[in-house]
Amino acid sequence: MRAFSYERVSAPAQAASRAAEVPGAKFIAGGTNLLDLMKLEIETPVHLIDVSGTGLDSISDTREGGLRIGALVSNTDLAANERVRREYGVLTRALMAGASGQLRNKATTAGNLLQRTRCPYFYDTAMPCNKRAPGTGCAALGQGAFSRQLGIIGTSDACIATHPSDMAVALRVLDAEVETVTPAGASRTIPLDEFYRLPGDTPEIETALMPGEFITAVKLPPPVGGRQAYYKVRDRASYAFALVSVALVRQSDGSGRVALGGVAPQPWRRAQADAALPDGANAVMSRLLDGASPTEENAFKIQLAERTLAGMLAEG
Amino acid sequence: MDFNQPADQNLFDRATVVGKPHARIDGLLKVTGTAPYAYERHDVVAGQLYGYPVGSAIAKGRIVAIDADAARSAPGVRGVVTTLDIEPLGIWNYNVARLFGGDVVEHYQQAIAVVVAETFEQARAAAALIETTYERDAIDVDLEAGWQRMQGTGEPSTQVGDVDAAFDSAAVTLDQMYHTPSQTHAMMEPHASIVDWSDGGQMTVWTSSQMIEWNRQALATTFGIEPDRIRVESPYIGGGFGGKLWLRADAVLAAIGSRALGAPVRLALPRPFMINNTTHRSATIQRIRLAAGADGKLTAIDHEAASHTLPGGRGENATAQTPYFYAAPNRRVIHHLVEMHLPEASDMRAPGEASGLMALEIAMDEMAEKLEMDPVEFRILNDTQVNPSDPSIPFSERHFVECLREGADRFGWADRNTTPGGRREGMWWIGHGMAGAYRGHLNLKSGARATLSNGRVIIETDMTDIGTGSYTILAQTAAETMGLPMGRVEVRLGNSAWPVSSGSGGQFGAASSTAGVYAACVALREQIAERLGVSDPEFSDGNVVAGDNVTPLSAITEELSAEDSINFGGFQTEDYLMATFGAHFVEVAVHVATGETRVRRMLAVCDSGRILNPITARSQVIGGMVMGTGGALSEELAVDLEHGFFANHDLAGYEVAVHADIPHQEVVFLDTVDGVATPLKAKGVGELGVCGVAAAIANAAYNATGVRVRDYPVTLDRMIDQLPAV
């Protein structure tokens, strides 16, 4: 871990303006991912801005009938919120499928959105990685590399990492928006489908956030109803990242929405795939994963995604 | 004490303490966090500095230069020693790669520098500033290619009868390939040491080691100093599973740092560094051919296996059980060592059998199916009471058939669905599987000192407790032998100042070291008898009883001390084959859509001689079953063929079983004793528990789905394309 300076801020706008003033600064809240990455020198911020005193830890109703989730609301509290459990069940299910009780107590909503990939080559500083060290190459695409966990769609020749969040997959299927404050003090709303950037040839740039821009909340539109489910497929029953996960909202007429985790650099959803839901899992996945370019090791994820959705549909 | 013939009836046959359930006497220290583990021994020596290791970023080659200037001038840094600064260190018997010194890189994350600083954080930060220039050599880490290369080479380790003729004339044959991956020990406590070699004279090492004397000898060889200048302490060990049998870089780098800086240095191997820096269980490729008559009797067993190793190493001999486990008149066994440039392959819990039974016990399941026989009955039919490779040698005790029958009965085996894929509950297929377990039993000479002081007995030995319960069973042994309650026995372990024991490994620890403590206690009893002027007294209820002469031990005011070892005679291996046996029964559920396999029920029945303490023995077996579950379903060190290392080198990427993976586990110990093994008639149990578990799970997954997976771990991607549509 590199030496760093540290300060606490008490207001969101202050967080953003301070971050813009200090190049190489990072926000810290729960620290469940950032501190681990700092110990390994994968993240090397020169300055940490502790935002845990900014008061963004409540969940409130919006005028439109949705929910506004403060950036600092813990994963545990979000999962346990009564309205979330009753009206946004896919979100609670996704949260409870992630990490462990201890981590969920510390991890925040904004921090969960911004967690970094779990690609093993990103984690090993002796290996080439365009995301960690731009321009060094992608070891995960090497001959005989270990890519079983990695992405099959939305990836590029520079990076095949996945975004590891479960929560974000549920938020994506719920059409969530990210509310921010810029260093200039302006607020901005970014739909989640525009929040994550695909890697292209700059996999180190992961989101649409501008330098210093600070997430204040995640907003959910009014409840969409339907039956909501989240199935996370993994080799062990707990404490593992998804091989594939499926967030599903299904209405009684058979229409609905589907998003995937564990397959792409962002929660993966396409409108034309949603539209095919009444026609079954194969119809959905042939649209949702059209253009996939898996490695030999992770090609199974295509079939797995389809079978997982088929299983969820079969369960009703 | 010489043990030169099987034990007769003795005090352990009417034991009141040995063999009884007794909670761990060190349990309170552990659950209150007060048991002193190596890295936390702040109090043993003043002025401790912190060391941090640097590992090679390449798998093979030469170090051209190391620039440590920035590290040396970093805040708090007291010194840096690089591998180029010193001559190559010595290599002890069981180590393969050099632990430090010189410019040659033999594997990824081989230690190449140590940074010593005033705080851990300073040492770690400075370590990241070190820049190394390498010359890379070509590498070979492809076991599959090695297997192909080895075909038709090598000498069988066992060759009996005419295997080829037996296959030609057999009614039913099987010929299949199986793969097991490399595995890492993943024990809770990392390798850690504090070393004080400040003046270059006496070296004191507080470490985490399964084998105190091996550690001391290895340090002596490594540094070219006399063993009597080295003292090693390791009273508590947070797991080892074979990973702490050997001297590793933690103690070596701490010693080098201490010598260079003139101060004690503490150093723990960081988890992401451990997996490639230390040892692991090698992957195996196995071909198994079985031949049987229509009656189900095996006529031939042909087992060919390969594992990988650095030049000079031992790999993982997956054929270890094959010469002995099942009857068959014709047999060929061959193990190929493929030299490769991965980190050092070495022992991990049940080395050999653990991997071998993963394959052999699937093969037995497949063969039973071909023969249309119940897999339990098929194994019973092919039981043997003698070494099938040398029928003049009987097993000392073998109750494998009883394990199978007892297990089948308790598990409700007869009620299972026998049609693969034929039972479904909701979204899950339910399957049942079983496997046999075999693990050789080995004894090592083991010593102890027993001291009578104020009516209490103190046991001192360099034996270790790696979480197995050594403290407790040694106290039980001493209490039984001395006729004292447990509360009047104190056990002191893990110090090279005390008599050399077997240490802990190869499931030899419990049986060997309890026999050693028994020997020391018998010697103490003789001293006490002599002191009291009585002959052949009884020791019971805290008294020495010779006829009407009753003397409380507490009445003996002078301190009496005796030291002895148990020396195991050649008859054990010349006249007998000693081994432990078991049967595993498992119920799994496999998700009909995803192919995820989850274990729902587990039962093990064990035959391993006298169980010294059913609580600690059960703990060993259920731990083995957990490890076997990980091996069956998730554990795999993934090899990067281009860079030559294990890519998933942390506990997020290397998935051991977690609580949610483990259902209720039932363990049954058969009431058996083995007088050939030790005076206590006990054998090992710590490794038996892992043997066969993975195959039982794989067989259950087959029974659930009808898809046979022969490569571990049995993950969904190995079966998904063969599962029926949802």
Secondary-structure blueprint of this entry?
The complex is a heterodimer of chains A (316) and B (726).
Chain A: E1 5-8, H1 12-21, E2 25-28, H2 34-39, E3 47-50, E4 59-61, E5 67-70, H3 75-80, H4 82-87, H5 89-96, H6 101-106, H7 109-113, H8 167-173, E6 177-181, E7 187-191, H9 192-195, E8 214-220, E9 227-233, E10 244-250, E11 256-261, H10 271-275, H11 281-288, H12 300-315
Parallel strand pairs in A: 1-3, 2-3
Antiparallel strand pairs in A: 4-5, 5-8, 6-7, 6-8, 9-10, 10-11
Chain B: E1 2-3, H1 27-31, E2 49-55, E3 61-67, H2 69-72, E4 77-82, E5 104-105, E6 111-117, H3 120-127, E7 131-136, H4 143-150, E8 158-160, H5 163-169, E9 172-180, E10 192-196, E11 203-207, H6 212-223, E12 230-233, H7 249-261, E13 265-268, H8 271-277, E14 284-292, E15 298-309, E16 330-339, H9 353-370, H10 375-381, H11 400-411, E17 424-425, E18 428-440, E19 446-453, E20 456-460, H12 470-482, E21 489-492, H13 509-532, E22 538-540, E23 543-546, E24 549-552, E25 560-568, H14 571-574, E26 579-591, E27 597-607, H15 614-633, E28 639-640, E29 645-646, E30 665-669, H16 693-705
Parallel strand pairs in B: 1-25, 2-13, 11-12, 15-16, 20-21, 27-30
Antiparallel strand pairs in B: 2-6, 3-5, 3-7, 4-6, 8-16, 9-14, 10-11, 10-13, 14-15, 17-18, 18-26, 19-20, 19-25, 22-23, 23-24, 26-27, 28-29
Helix pairs in contact in B: 9-16, 12-13, 15-16
Cα gyration radius of chain A (Å): 19 Å
**Count of helix runs of chain B:** 16
Using the alpha-carbon principal axes, give the shape of chain B: globular
In CATH, the topology of the largest domain in chain B is named Aldehyde Oxidoreductase, domain 4
Largest interface: A-B, 43 and 47 residues
